[in-house]
Write a sequence for this structure.
């Protein structure tokens, strides 16, 4: 297991992060995603920590708070020293009926950070993330509130999830202009079958020193190895009941053809190769693993041992690369004019 600095901070996090969306269960979407109770969650947390993972990600909305409760109790049950684990959670989604029971306002953030701390049984959160965009709250208000929470010691660092490049860049600018603590991370969807992030977000992160946490690295199970062109896996996989995130299936199956071939040659699983591709990307700080079963987690953890040759990476790049899009193709065309002549 390798450890990377999270953005422009001094905090080291493991290259693999244990995601806990499968903890808790409940109704609707949460019932389909996972219903792990305390004993099975404890086993997964222990296995991840034993493998060198020091990073755990959850959110207040996961199973209506049950995921946070289970994570906190797991750390207690396993006797994990507080300074040996980096705990991340999120705020934004609806946690009540009133008009102010959701969003990134000072009102909602202040209420929810206390609730998350109580459920996690912690005195501080290591990484507090805004779980999406709130179009009704000025970014200035959100950043000022997060800065206040850092200075009060309730959170150590903060970041965002599912924000556009311009929104993150604006937040960085506000923080620097007003001498607030800067954001350190963005949690976003990124896979070898979904490389949209590379158009705007990846260059922004490199420019502004923002770390990348990847969610759904197997594209909602599509890159797990069970799905094939002939429809195999369609009936019993997670996508049979929860077809998310959206993926260009034709491109994905072309990628899977290469992954299956390489998996056979390397005596590794398709899932391990899909995860390892992310670990080979310079922009990636940590890849979030979400598992329902121990065998899934153990297989995913093995991705840290997979290495690609330059030729293999080039094959995967060729079959998965994004189609040219303006202004990218024009920027690329003009990018060498200062060095010519």
């Amino acid at each position: 297991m390798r450890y990377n600095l999270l953005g422009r901070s001094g905090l080291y996090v493991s290259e693999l992060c244990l995601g806990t969306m499968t903890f808790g269960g409940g109704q609707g979407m949460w019932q389909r995603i996972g219903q792990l109770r305390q004993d099975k969650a404890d086993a997964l947390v222990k296995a991840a920590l034993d493998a060198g993972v020091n990073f755990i990600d959850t959110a207040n909305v996961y199973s209506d708070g049950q995921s946070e409760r289970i994570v906190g109790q797991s750390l207690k049950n396993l006797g994990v020293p507080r300074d040996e684990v980096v705990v991340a959670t999120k705020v934004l989604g609806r946690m009540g009926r009133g008009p102010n029971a959701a969003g990134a306002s000072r009102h909602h953030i202040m209420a929810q950070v206390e609730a998350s701390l109580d459920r996690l049984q912690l005195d501080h959160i290591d990484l507090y993330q805004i779980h999406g965009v709130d179009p009704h709250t000025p970014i200035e208000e959100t950043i000022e509130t997060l800065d206040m929470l850092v200075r009060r010691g309730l959170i150590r660092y903060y970041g965002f999830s599912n924000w556009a490049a311009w929104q993150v860049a604006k937040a960085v600018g506000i923080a620097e202009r007003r001498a607030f603590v800067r954001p350190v991370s963005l949690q976003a969807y990124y896979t070898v079958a979904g490389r949209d992030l590379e158009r705007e977000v990846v260059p922004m992160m490199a420019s502004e020193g923002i770390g990348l946490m990847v969610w759904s690295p197997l594209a909602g199970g599509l890159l797990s190895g069970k799905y094939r062109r002939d429809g195999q896996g369609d009936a019993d996989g997670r996508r049979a009941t929860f077809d998310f995130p959206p993926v260009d299936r034709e491109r994905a199956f072309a990628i899977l053809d290469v992954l299956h071939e390489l998996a056979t040659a390397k005596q590794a699983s398709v899932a391990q190769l899909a995860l390892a591709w992310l670990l080979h990307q310079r922009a990636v700080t940590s890849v979030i693993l979400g598992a329902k079963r121990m065998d899934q987690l153990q297989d995913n953890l093995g991705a840290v041992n997979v290495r690609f040759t330059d030729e293999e990476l080039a094959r995967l790049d060729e079959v998965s690369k994004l189609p040219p899009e303006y202004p990218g193709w024009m920027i690329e065309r003009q990018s060498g004019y200062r060095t010519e002549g």
